[in-house]
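step: validate -> pass
step: tokenize input -> pass
step: predict -> running
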Amino acid sequence: MSEIKGKVWNFGDNIDTDVIIPGRYLRTFDPKDLALHVLEGERADFTKNVQKGDIILAGENFGCGSSREQAPVAIKTAGVDVIIAKSFARIFYRNAINIGLPVIVADIEAEDGDIISVDLEKGIICNENTNITVEFQPFKEFMLDILSDGGLVKHYLKDKK
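step: predict -> pass
step: emit ->
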């Protein structure tokens, strides 16, 4: 799981959790139902066209707002394999790692549809369309283990067997 490659979806600054998954859809805990509505208010084409392995690229303060864990769950269930943003709300960052969704603080230019490759272990992002490479703080081994196991709870339970 240390290497990820996918198509970019661009989002701006201050994408809050109510934009990621509006409160009116929180009557269910089914991740598949939540994924049907993820980011629909920000980009109507997202829920219809996002595919497994896609990458969200965003500006500052991604995931601000409430502490709802359903926001990263909806994104991950929709198929997104990694979120790259200039900065994250702390609770969103923590919730994403806890459910096994990699989140990276970095600034790389890319257009919608560009292909980006990410190496979590080496700390390298490459826009394969422009050959621009950016470095970020690589994930430590314990974090890679948590992500590889599918999140903190699954990682903890694996160690209990």
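step: describe -> The chain has a mean pLDDT of 94.
step: cleanup -> pass
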